[in-house]
Specification:
heterodimer; A: D-amino Acid Aminotransferase, Chain A, domain 1; 3 domains; eight-stranded antiparallel beta sheet; five-stranded parallel beta sheet; 17 helices; 33% helix; globular; B: mainly beta; OB fold (Dihydrolipoamide Acetyltransferase, E2P); four-stranded antiparallel beta sheet
Amino acid sequence: MKRLLVANRGEIAVRVARTAREMGIQTVAVHAANDAASPHVRAGDLAVSLGDGPPSETYLSIDRLLRAARDSGADAVHPGYGFLSESPAFARAVVGAGLVWVGPPASAMEEMGGKLRSRARMEAAGVPVVPGSSPGTDAKGLAAAAARIGYPLLVKASAGGGGKGMSRVDRPEDLAAAVEEGRRLAEAAFGDGTVYLERLLERCRHVEFQVFGDGSGNVVHLFERECSVQRRHQKIVEETPSRALTPSLRAAMGEAAAAAARTVGYVSAGTVEFLVAPDGRFYFLEMNTRLQVEHPITEATLGIDLVRAQLEVASGAPLPAAWRDGRLAPRGHAIELRLYAEDPETFLPRTGRLLAWREPEGPGVRVDAGVEEGSRVGVEYDPLLAKLTVSAESRDAAIARARRALSEWIVLGVETNLPLLEAVLDAPEFASGGYDTGLVERLPPRRPTEPPDAAWIEAALASSGPAASAGASTPPSGPAGGGDPWDAAAGWRPGA
Amino acid sequence: MRTARLSSGGRTEEVGLGPSGEASLGGRLVRYAREDAGGGLSRLATGGTARRVLAVRDGQRVWVWCDGSVHVFDRTRRARSGADHGAGLSAPMPGRVRRILAAPGESVARGAVLVALEAMKMEHAIRAPRDGVVKRVMVREGDLVDAGAELVELEPAKS
């Protein structure tokens, strides 16, 4: 591998390019025309434009990506996460073009792609799955299955996803009506009225295991990540180790995760997600056949580089001996916090230009950012701005470090979820470690803090300074507060 | 003394600045000292408490970072004109107009989806707040709109 095309943007493209450079591999950055000034473009040794258009015609266009690879002389492709990272078609096209695909085989992605298919596959492999029925439309058959599964349960659309067409049933007498409703919803939403039943597990934790395979048939797990801090079913804070796991549960889940990956002939980095019920039982949820957003916490506690391992394995190397022999042991504690451009209360996306951007620094602090001061945050891409990963000797020290780092982070010009991240760290439920996926919903409402006198005064001083957005393309040059407050400017009027 | 009229979080204040470290804030006199803290930040002390601050102005808006918290101030004029006429429906967030499900002249029931807006990975439905008749649709499918942009004008239903 001499030249790696990174088929992604944002922080993950920057992150992959960094490791490639450390390994002496050149990188090719790709970008949509409207994205040419983004930091990931400069992170590459070469940059190729994917042309104009929405993501479907740029970062999601297999044709344009392959053309970029050919034009730039790349010999390998790393897909990052999101976009085409879990597309078997892209993996096949890359391999078909004679390039190295840095990821799992297309067949493994397909096996794990469909929820029902992967579920059946896991059941056969002896990995516990959430008790459920097979898909069907027959009310009588579903009623019999419901009796076996137990209540409460969910009626789910076979063709569905993302919570669409799902309804909850608490009592057997409500089942028939819910199945009818579910069939109607599924038919309307997906054109397929097939539904299935699944046990509804409450107050669960979401714990995933990093797995890694090589081309020689070695598959290992690299411990867990606790991912129960979620909003809108998306993770915002992850930590490792998880407080929910005892050593024996950890061992059992790790083995199940590795077995799941082995069953589909997994190669490269992947993640097996589980639900852990309050009674300590765990259930296979799904497998993500790519590098995860939250992979840095695993790197922090194990002292490894998952992207390096991906590139080595893709080049044909076996897993490092220490990994194969189970000699890796997590050390200390790590927490990742995701900074999103969104309203901390409603979670609605926010846009704008980053007028000030100062990242936290110091011991045990890692920032993976896809933006910088002056960056425009638009509506076309994921609202993830950056990830903060902190590591320390203990969980308490890691939480204190995370708080300190957040307090250093200066982000002006675009509203972010930083107050929500602080609220999570401050929640007694989070501090106890005994939280579940309902944590964010139970947080008290984030009331905006009243500006102190100093903020009012600084705002009044800046009010007369130069506007940061006066020149559309030039980044702001320092604080506006340095301006002479005696300049008569718009918004000012002679006082009484 | 010069004054700026600023509002933040629903609170509006006249802030006056005197020539030598005195400010009036909602009628109170506040003495302050401000010094360069390096790196573009300042240290602003009031009432015995020094805080690190960084402010950036963006048009009529001023963003202030103050010891770990962000405060947003809008510069407002004394006389507020152009009051909300209450009939229009505006975008709650910036985004792209995915679908328009209402046509001028059409009667719509309260709760009906008029416009589907998409921003990043989310779709947001703009619904009729009451029964009414669509008077005007100000956007087209595919348009990029800012937060607050007027999308649809709705007239009360004729009974």
